[in-house]
Design goal:
globular
């Protein structure tokens, strides 16, 4: 019995000796700290809708990083590795404050309740009483897509869907940009949060998912507003309201 027990104890001793603390405890080693990527232009960040992301460094990479010994440092003081400067993130231009909603004096001939759109100054006026108007900044038709006229609001929709006109689809395809034939309402929809339909035309006063374009000649003829502004206007006017584009 003893002759059998001693070889077994010997084998266990050999096995135990072969298991070093570094290998036996490797699976229980604390994970490396969470690192926030400074490069917000990285493709995986862009896929998250420009939201800053968190990445965890690979354990093997962390373990392979050289560590400076205290003896290699002056006065035996360890110093942190110098990190490369973070890349600059391209920021979208901010809207000019002049295009934010505000109450202004108005001396035009239109009666209160009328919407007047000045496509040269890129302002929309909702005429009020006592020589006042509520003014909003808008995006208007780019060169070649300007128009003027008077229409009534014939429909109002919240988070409207989008069916690009056939001419627009063909025009954009020639530029290598292929539009969908239908896009449901939502934050990615270029018509934004609200739409006011003008007469029997294909033009609308609508929101946008590109608020930084407000104040410019940027559309294919529609009147573009910030989402918060078109929601405000939507609540102030009704179907049948006169819209004058000048």
């Amino acid at each position: 019995m003893k002759t059998i027990l001693f070889p077994m104890l010997g084998a266990m001793a050999v096995f135990a000796a072969g298991v070093t603390p570094s290998t036996a405890g490797d699976r229980y080693v604390d994970r490396p700290p969470v690192m926030v990527s400074p490069d917000l232009s990285a493709p995986w960040v862009l896929q998250l809708g420009h939201a800053p992301g968190i990445v965890r460094q690979n354990r093997q990479i962390v373990q392979q990083q050289p560590r400076l010994r205290a003896a290699q440092q002056p006065d035996r003081v360890q110093t942190a590795a110098v990190q490369p400067p973070a890349k600059r993130v391209a920021m979208r231009p901010q809207i000019n404050p002049i295009f934010l909603p505000q109450e202004v004096d108005y001396d035009g001939p239109q009666k209160p309740g009328t919407i007047v759109i000045d496509t040269t100054q890129n302002f929309l006026f909702l005429v009020e009483k006592d020589g006042k108007a509520r003014r909003y900044g808008v995006g208007t038709g780019k060169p070649g897509f300007e128009w003027s006229g008077t229409h009534k609001i014939t429909n109002k929709r919240e988070w409207p869907d989008w069916r690009p006109p056939a001419q627009m689809i063909k025009r954009e395809a020639a530029k290598g940009r292929y539009l969908p034939t239908y896009l449901a309402g939502g934050t990615e929809n270029p018509l934004g949060a609200r739409a006011l339909y003008l007469g029997t035309t294909e033009y609308r006063i609508h929101g946008t998912n590109q608020p930084w374009t407000i104040g410019g000649a940027v559309s294919s003829g529609c009147i573009r507003m910030r989402n918060e502004d078109v929601v405000d206007l939507y609540e102030r006017v009704n179907v049948g309201t006169t819209v004058e584009v000048i």
